[in-house]
Amino acid sequence: MPSTPSTPRPSQSVGTETPTKQSLSSFAPWDRDQLVRRLSTFKDVLWSQLPEELCELEWARRGWVEREDGKKGVKCGLCVADMEIIWDWNQLREAVIEQRESQESIKETAQNGDGILENGTSNGTTDSSHPELPLSDADDVYSKEAIDDLEATTFLQAHYVPLISSGHAMKCPWRTRRTDLTVLRLPPASLSLPSLMSRLSTLSPILAFLPDASQITIPKPLPESLPTTLQDFDPRLVQVGISGWSGSLLGDKGILKCTTCHRRVGLWLFKSTSESNDDILKLDVESLDLIAEHKSYCPWINGQVQSGMAGWEYVYEAVEPRGTLKRNRDGNDDEKESRFKRLRDMLKGIKR
């Protein structure tokens, strides 16, 4: 784990580059492509295990990308501020306390006259790249040691959540604005039958790596009748494609990947050992859940982000035979009418 405090180091100027879909160093909170590209930089699996308030989506919404210098942390492509992240509370606490002591020492030196120039300004011995941390008080979170993991997570949130915005340079527009969640919603083209066919073309080469249908958890059974263009595909592939997944080969193994939340799933994790030649312990194999394997904020499964139904539901409607939706709606109306009839009969009985 890093041993230095996770404080931001903003530059003094903010980039003025015209926003484009190819650049991450521009301010375009309305641009879905940029948000997806920022999310794609968060490759460390630890991000997805953090609380929602600190997961990669919240950092990406504020313009941050994952650092590429080998250190755990984030960087803003616009104001070039960066933070080195320490997820261990004890290490973070020690680093913050050490930095505070350094700041207090500099202040004492300045007050004694050693650090003041003739014009009354500082001689520059302070590290301008690190904003001062508040000094200790009775409710100071940094004076406390976490008694368990839950409290450690609470302390980490208290430290990092404000830095998602305040970690930017003072003039950086990401400091006061973030990308709306609905910007991540899938465009209509991604929910169409042609887009499904495109995903199926990437999934066909990994058919042999898919687990049996009994080991795949699906959101909804396929319609009894599918469009002609889908009838020659293995039903498992159709289910996977409807759920927003594409396929890819990783050496001699197959993986599923989502181009929106950038989740990658190794299919070998869902194959029983009896189907492989590996001499490993025969453990119970989990089912491949096509919905749960997406990240929670992914519009393929999150109707709130998609501003309506989840993405897979729209695709499912696209492959249902015409007239099915109308029959379903009629059936729902009959069910509602039946409930209202029972209610009316019950009220009549009360009046009697």
Query: Residue share in helices?
Result: 25-40%
Poorly predicted runs are 1-22, 116-138, 275-282
Number of domains: 2
In whole angstroms, how far apart are the ends?
A: 75 Å
SSE arrangement, N to C: HHEEEHHHEHEEEEHHH
The number of helical segments is 9
Which sheet architecture does the biggest sheet show? 3 strands, antiparallel
Question: Which helices and strands, and how do they pair?
Answer:
Elements: H1 32-40, H2 56-61, E1 64-66, E2 73-76, E3 82-84, H3 89-111, H4 149-166, H5 193-203, E4 216-217, H6 235-242, E5 246-250, E6 253-257, E7 264-266, E8 288-289, H7 303-306, H8 311-319, H9 324-351
Parallel strand pairs: 4-8
Antiparallel strand pairs: 1-2, 2-3, 5-6, 6-7
Helix pairs in contact: 5-6
Describe this structure as you would to a colleague.
- By secondary structure, this protein is mainly alpha-helical.
- Helix content is 33%, strand content 8%.
- A hairpin with a 6-residue loop joins strand 1 (64-66) and strand 2.
- The longest helix has 28 residues, at 324-351.
- Residues 1-22, 116-138 and 275-282 have low confidence and may be disordered.
Short description:
By secondary structure, the chain is mainly alpha-helical. The chain has two domains: 32-183, no CATH class; 188-319, no CATH class. It is 33% helix and 8% strand.
